[in-house]
Amino acid sequence: MITLQTPANQLTRYGKTAASRLKFLGITTATDLLRYYPIRYQDLREVVPIQTVQAGDRITLRGKIELITNRRSWRRRMAVTEVLLRDSTGAIPLIWFNQPYVGKILKVGDEVLVAGRAEEGNYPLHLANPTYEKVRREQTHVGRIVPFYALTHDLSQKQLRALLRLVLPLAKQLPDPLPESIRQEQRFMPLVQALTAVHFPADRQQLVAARRRLKFEELLLFVLQLFATKALVASTPAPAIPFNEQRVRRYVKSLPFTLTDDQRKAAWEILRATDRNEPMNRLLEGDVGSGKTVVASLGMVNAAAAGFQSALMAPTEVLASQHERTLRTFLAPAGLTVGLLTRTLRTINGVAVTKPKLLNAAAAGEVSVLVGTHAVLDDALTFSKLGLVVVDEQHRFGVEQRKQLRRQASTEGAFLPHLLSMTATPIPRSLALTVYGDLDLSIIKQLPAGRPAVTTRRLQPNQRADAYAAIREEVAAGHQAFVICPLVEESDRLGVKAATDEHRRLREEIFPNLRVGLLHGRLPGKKKVEVLERFRDRQLDVLVATAVVEVGVDVPNATLMLIEGAERFGLAQLHQLRGRIGRGSAVSTCLLLAESDTERVRQRLDALVQSRDGFHLAELDLKLRGPGELSGRLQSGFLDFKIATLHDLELMNEVRDVAKQLFDEDPGLTRYPELRAAVARADVHPE
User: Fold this and answer.
1) Cα diameter, the chain
2) Fewest CB atoms less than 10 Å from the CB: which of 11, 52, 53, 565?
3) Dihedral angle at the C-alpha atoms of 547, 263, 226, 417, nearest 10 degrees?
4) Predicted confidence (pLDDT) per residue in 449-471, tens digit
């Protein structure tokens, strides 16, 4: 018997591999599965007569199987299953390539629903590799509004939908965190209905209502966390770190570049805020390559001058390693010691050490700045005197994390370190104030002087050879190149190149004389760092990568980036990727290669060609992409929402009003135990 806490590996009949992939997606229990929301939907309800089908149509058909043949294509060496589907108006072939199991699942006489694209070419009019499902009382994969989920390889959409069908009956056991009064006031459906409708909606109206209810719930938990954090900050003192003008000026002079006016202003705001007994709670927002890290380093130098330590937390080992390297270079002239702590890496000033030695050094105050992932929140780690914490990208940093830092910060007494959050995801000011109304905001828009503008070009699919020629030219000139692919495994349905296959093809067929590396999110953390170090040290000419390089990767010698499947990325994400080049003094070029050429795709990509202003592009992205309930994955950026998006501004304003009333009347939420428990659960953010 399964329960809400049944482990994922006991849910699936698809084997250990599928269970491990669920864990990779953050799904470890049945509850996690229920809360793993679709990223898009496809309406496959309308069934058309076979006689009306024309080449190019995307259609849903219903009929009976009249004939099944299985054979092998000797030319392409693959299994071919051909099925003849007939309805009252005619018949049409269905062809599956390299899926021999289809012929074992389907039988002559079965009534089935199929969906796909009608094609004509090597074969007469047919459907190639269509989605299929036998007709039953309740359809899951065809003949309905069908959910699609973010997946990893070795896990299919059909498998995940089947698992959701298995656990959906458990939804009635989940406590509803929304108080009855709010549900009635907002006319929300109960949680069990919302979860059923978000995964398997009966119609669009039901889907919209379910998503609105779940978004409201998620945003309410988020805002209540902000209020709880604000209350904690207001009730706990911070160490006042006096401004040491002489030490800071000396450090600024030691830097190999001149700070921009925006950097100076942001640094002064930080230095002034940390010179108070009230904990700083500031968001440093900067465009790609604007120099946020060096601004944060000024706060670290000033803290060290007063005898305080600093910590910087990054979301990945790759980014943490990069920050450690950058800060070590910046801070060496100031005499600061920099440590690195992740799951697999422990160093002091770039030298590998044991974990106990690093922890002892931090506790003794011998490490001025400790850089790491969420491993920094390890209970075994204590600081001698922690005064400043910098959190970079994609981390919610709530009440529990702050309480943990208060425990770790010092053995001398309870105080909260000052907190600086950094993001390179440009958020329009209006949006930032709406979402983070309780944070102070510092913005860096200017880019450092001396960096030439990155030229961006949109290419047609038939111009791929030109892109390869450009890569060869850059490498011949002593530079390096990125090739970015949006998925790790090939997806024929999406027509998007996979990094693994692309790496093999480029290395063996296109650039056999070049050194081609591969970097993607499923590599172990230590391996990612090694690959990036090889690329940075010019041991690789071309790096094939997924969006794992989107944030923070700094390779000044890389001057060309080819982005495959550019239409699959959001505008803000493309801007982030482009920011990985143009970080040196050489002219750099970003080539956008889209598989589709619709007006909407051209509009978005041309906006990137014409503008380098991340804040302008973020505003434009909100307008161009729209709320899109049934299509297109909408990224939430560093807010890490599961279903709410940055497009839900109006709903966020409504949520804040409700949250404020709840919090003002009952700050501890003692009258709403289910809501209180949900806020506490949402606050925990493991590495």
Assistant:
1) 88
2) 52
3) 110
4) 777 789 999 998 889 999 999 99
